Amino acid sequence: MDYPIWDIAIGGSVLMGLVAVTHVIVSHFAIGGGLVIAVTETLAVKRGDHEMRELARRSSFVLILVSTVFGAISGVGIWVVAGLISPSTIAALIRNYVWGWAIEWVFFIVEIVAALVYFATWDKISKRVHVMVGWIYFVSAYLSLVVINGIITFMLTPGEWLKTHAFWDGFFNPTYWPALVLRTGIVMMMATAFMGLAAWRGQESSRPRLSRYLGWWMLAGVFVSYAGYRWWEVALPDGIRALFLGDSPGLAALADTRSFVLWSLTAALVLTVVFLLVVPRMAKLVPLVLVMLAAFAFFGSYERLREGVRKPFLIHDYMFSNGVRVDEISKLNEQGILSKARWAARDPADDPVAMGRQVFRAQCASCHTLDGYQGIRKLLPDDPDMTFGVLYGLFEQGEEYTGAEPGTAVDKSELFYPYMPPFVGTEEEMMSLAEYLSSLVATEPEVARAGEGQ
Amino acid sequence: MSENLIPALDSTPIPGPAWLFHVLLVFTFFLHALFMNLALGGTLLAAFGQLAAGGKGSDHRVTLARRLMGVNTYAISMAITTGVAPLLFVQILFQQYFYTATILIAWVWLFFLVMLMVGYYAAYLYKYRGAPTRGDGGTGWLVVSAVMFLLIAMVHVAVNLIHSQPDKWSLFADNPWSVLADPVYFPRLLHFVLAAVGFAGLVGAWWAVRQAKQGKDVQLNTDIARFAWKWVLWTTVIQVVDGFVLLLVLPQPVLLGLMRGGAATMIPLTLSILLGVGLLMMMARVSNPVEKAGLVNGTLGAMALTIAVMSITRHQVRGLYLEPVASRFEAATAPQWGNFVLFALLLVAGLATVGYMVRRVVNSPATGDEAA
Q1: pTM over 0.90
Q2: DSSP letters along A166-177, please?
């Protein structure tokens, strides 16, 4: 929150979601595509199978166009967006895991060079060497997943790192291995989803055979994903799992997302069995798109669930989504949130409403807009006393975090507002924020916007 | 006071001594600059050549455009890949300045990704739907690609100037476009663009000379080498002038800091000026590059060295800009030497793998049924 605040009507989290989801779909295809293409070409060479060779060749063109362009740029895009909406978090992550990212960069270089060489040398070099390049591509791409999986899972389940702050404690955290198995299944699913279209673009006579071949890959991907997902659920700390599992899950929306995860995986399984394995003659554009959509729905909803259960943290039990660290709650309650929010408090606040607006920008604007995504105005009660009550409840929630043993997780399912960071700041700041929020209820959106510009 | 707007450093110590990250930042930026120069300069030069020739496939300038863009779809990819590392290390060393600068021009910074994607796909479209595949045409795609890359260069110069001048952040926050009025902005932009075109032209000339020396299309390659060489020569002439202008428009404390920095700053600065002037002298001796292949090779090597040295000076200039405030931000360090060694070993292994792969590929040409 020390940083300037970027006002974006659709909400920073939505923007991040758009960039991240499209990136992960493409990047997982880039990894899985490497595996399936390498195996396909190996089999094609061994059997002298021209149709399999052409499938590998067409798929490699898609791989180049989609992964080395869109995948690489959207990957940088995640950093760019993170730096714009959550600079404190990405700074903390990079300081802890810069060597992890540097190692991933090495694999990324090998991966990209291999991809470009692989694509550029069809018809130009010996089969054996070309197959070797394909395998180098896959191995380096998969190793980049092995690394980045440690950082992604660290954000949800930092485990022993909370006590030791040691690189490997955070890296090999409680959900590292289940997530790696899960993502291994997902990369096979994504590869098949894209390569199904490459098979469909081939000769009509070869489609059923190639579709069935890809169907086995999809089937394997579905089962590995399912095993990984179930393991991931078991590996989650009780307080997180209770948010979406059990007889009375802490958050109904997350329980619904979890149902969607499993149903979309089931849909992918059924569609694969029917259209790719049992009646592969039917593997035409529409059925293939349906398989692809089911696979995307599973992956997208899993990512949404993973992000959802992490709230209100960006790094679980360490840093909240507004950049406030758990270990600084007490200090900020004494000194005030505005003591840290240089940009939000850039101009002097002449009255409580102006100060409240600064507090809002410092503490709430990373998730809430005024009238756009998560628009605060429509969420506010009409009664100002009730607004203050909510804020006080959030302030007290902070004590749950500060009262916990350092390094131990708070059971979020027991909290009244499990999705929200605690209110942090002085009593004066809380009163000011309440006044500002109350003024929003009484203000037309246009008037408020005009005020924003001042 | 704008200086009070500088965010506090993250409390997490950096996992290695600062000097190590400075070295890595400069080194990886140099790698990135090589590919970035080829991508930006090559696309601009290809567009100039294609426009000058009216898109006619028989013209040697279009052949040069074809060649440059044939390579550029790979060079752009490598520019992105090698750009990841300096982006990583700059966040370690300059997080509080860098993030603030990007947020102050958030939409523009975000839009650079869109421009990169458009420019990249346009390069592919030119390659497969324009002159490189069909013999002629595709000028529109080429121009789109060149414009996108030029705009991206403008965005990066803007971020660099904003992040290195926290004393002006209030001004930039109120009017981000005011960075364009910074006296350093356009000379600096020109400095990068000229270097890019010069480097790409030199690569194009070197390639044509090699082809001519192997007896392939001697007249065509001689024409290409001469055309490219003119661009190399004139961009370097203007570059030397612009380089001095850039020095003079730097804020006085920065310029004085460079001059009074002793051997640490004066050696790279003097070396880069000498290399610039030396390059000019080498280039002026060549009227037909094909006849002086050795000099062309030497010029290419000297230019790569100049880029390396200028990468150091560029980094030092940033340090001098930030010197008045930097002392307030001494980051704690908690080195993770084991992880660094792992990274270094994997880097060596990775580069060895790339080398092995490329060598096997080069040594395994095949055609017909023998080919993959």
Answers
A1: yes
A2: -HHHHHT-TTHH
